[in-house]
Amino acid sequence: MRMALRTIEIMGSPVLREKCAEVDVCDDELRALVRDMLETMYHSSGIGLAAPQVGLTTRVIVVDPRDENEDRRNPIALVNPQVVWFAKELNKAPEGCLSIPGMEDVVQRPASVVVEGLNPDGEEVRIEAEGVLSRVLQHEIDHLDGILFVDLLTPLKRRIFLKKWKKSQAEKKV
Ligand code: ZN
């Protein structure tokens, strides 16, 4: 099956700030997008990717929170995913994003969630997630509403983060 790497949008690109539209039909075009997104995610050594990161304002995410030492891929693709339950308990862990390359910061999120959506064949899926899976699902679903992890930092931490980011981007241009 033919697959293609898609170009990843970098923070500053307006598409990353848009609210994405629900998918109406799970057809071959959608499944081709999912395959491309997975290929692009694996190619960039990411553990999650959302459609706006490849320039599309559609509610599709792919994740694979496998261990780095694990060779076996365990991809999950979700269409119109929704968090239907959040744990009250919060935890903190470092997070990165393929759209903010080279940067990471500690983000606080609910420790576990229940997510509902469709698989690429249009069948209903329900995932009870904790640990890394819970975190990556929340991160990717945020992308569908134009939210980046940097938005979840405290104002002070965000200011420092954005300063570092600006600096790293400026250095790249030289
Ligand atoms: Zn991201």
Structural commentary:
The protein is 28% helix and 26% strand. By secondary structure, the protein is of the alpha+beta class. Strands 1-2-3-6-7 form a 5-stranded antiparallel sheet. It has a two-stranded antiparallel ribbon with strand order 4-5. The longest helix has 19 residues, at 155-173. The protein is globular, with a radius of gyration of 16 Å. The termini are far apart.
Ligand set: zinc ion
Across the major sheet, the strand order is: 1-2-3-6-7
Residue fraction in strands? 25-35%
Which percent bin holds the helix content? 25-40%
Shape: globular
Q: How many DSSP-defined strands? A: 7
Query: Between the first and last Cα atoms, what is the distance in angstroms?
Result: 40 Å
Major sheet characteristics = 5 strands, antiparallel
| Structural class determined from secondary elements | alpha+beta
The overall pLDDT average reads 95
**Helix/strand order:** HEEEEEEEHH
Radius of gyration: 16 Å
Secondary structure tally, helices: 3
- Poorly predicted runs are none
What key attributes describe this structure?
26% strand, single chain, five-stranded antiparallel beta sheet, 28% helix, alpha+beta, globular, 174 residues, binds zinc ion, two-stranded antiparallel sheet
